[in-house]
Specification:
6-stranded antiparallel barrel, Elongation Factor Tu (Ef-tu), domain 3, 28 strands, single chain, Rossmann fold, alpha+beta, about 650 residues, 6-stranded mixed sheet
Amino acid sequence: MDNPDIIYKTDALIASDIDSYLETHQHKTMLRFITCGSVDDGKSTLIGRLLYDSKMIFEDQLASLEADSKKVGTQGQEIDFALLVDGLAAEREQGITIDVAYRFFATEKRKFIVADTPGHEQYTRNMITGASTADLAIILIDARQGILTQTRRHSYLAHLIGIKHLVVAVNKMDLVDYDETVYNRIISEYAAFAKEMGIEAFTPIPISGLAGDNITSQSSNMSWYKGPSLIEHLENVEVMNTANQSGPLRLTVQWVNRPNLDFRGFSGQIASGTVKPGDEVRVLPSGKISTVKRIVTMDGDLDRAVAGQSVTLALNDEIDCSRGDVIAAADAPPQVADQFESTIVWMGEEELLPGRSYWMKIGAQFVSATIQPPKYQVNVNNMEQLAAKTLQLNTIGVAEIATDRPIIFEPYADNRDLGGFILIDKISNATVAAGMLHFSLRRSQNVHWQNIDIDRTAHALQKHQEPRVIWFTGLSGSGKSTIANMVEKRLYALGKHSFLLDGDNVRHGLNKDLGFTDADRVENIRRIGEVARLMADAGLIVLTAFISPFRAERQLVRSMLPEGEFLEIFVDTPLSVAEERDVKGLYKKARAGELKNFTGIDSDYEAPENADIRIDTTKMKPDEAAELIVDKIVGSWAYTI
């Protein structure tokens, strides 16, 4: 198994001429790959064997290796395979590789970065993280177990995110007596599944990670196998640079560099294409056109820059360009849209709530986005498209997504940087999903904002007041509607123009199609928020009385309005007190199991953490609360503009 020429040649070069080694090492090609598959398929053991048999040394051990090599001559530095594998296993047991563990190593021909990810289903999100930058995926299959659900899931995900090179490594062949029949059966089954997924080709290799068969050289135990060893394939596979030089120019601006008044540059990595001084470029989303004046790097100006290089472009015109903008070829710009079809891999512990607003990060762009109910969910076992109202942990679905402003994008199949995104929960800041944009929806191109002459300022001037949305929130029976009604009566007496939106009243018409599931509650508040915003645009003081149980949706409505126009009033009533009141008999029904998804009983209420006003109804009567609100908030407004 061990090949002395492979093992010691690099060590000898380090010992005799470290400068030559570093020069050679610097110009090697790089392959990023991921090991994945089900639990106990042997991922860590395989990595340990690769490191041991090929003497692939972690980059951060290079200095130590150089010193040791000079001491022992051409024998190099011995690595105990058992200790190495035990170390990897210990990491797994201690939870260290619950996040992605990256290993850095090299052979004579190529440098490698391998992402070692956990095989447990609940950590599928980590597999996505590792695969997002990989050129190749090694799908491990235990020869004794055959193809499992996680095998199919990881294969589908690897294909979905655009990994072109798949290696199907049937591992633990030593435990099935190196039986060719077992191997052929597994590969035949995998080939049928791969065809259903649209995988055009894959490389099958029978191996034993523990025994070292077909890892660095062909195994005598499997003379029936005539293909390359695993490391031979990894060294020689032709990987197209994800940064495509033949495509049109794409540079996402990461930093605006202006050290002095005489220089303004836009820094970032070229995702595709080439650029040289004099080239005409277009800056998106503004669409402004200029020409490249200079290509600046730490080592001086360049006459030409290509995909994969990080540069600073100076333009000949002073045009608006900021972080997240894209500098593109003027005659072939990417698209700009705000509605898309996408594939979403849900990674959050809590299920997707259609209509909820999430942060969306796509390249250097950071926007607010909402997801519609999925068109379907994918069954990774048979690729069946299943009906779904939401997505749960580790499920994959296709859904439409809308952003709060147009973004620069390209289909993920054409450009990972401008087509791949993540979704972030606005409250917890946890990453809850990864996704791939397919195409923009036609309606996003056909719907445009219509400018009107009588705007919100004109409406407010006519009414001699500043528009506001006063948002009352609290449990059912807390007294929201009662207090809101009293506040509006006082506003009316003051001659102010207002309108009260009440939760029960709205559900008789606008939201009569919605129930009381979490998803329906989210959509209920989203619609009310849009109505309240339009009323505020008309110059009105809008009062709303809704349970609105989730902080995220209350924050969504706040974000719809100009700073200072949204006022959150928490009508704080203990659950026990609200139950005692129970004017509508709802709590009694909920306790009896006759009313499902009732807030405070079997559905959560997320109390405001920093409400603008808190009303404790155990200490204050409704009329006193109304007077307090008018005096302390409404009374401080500048109504005359």
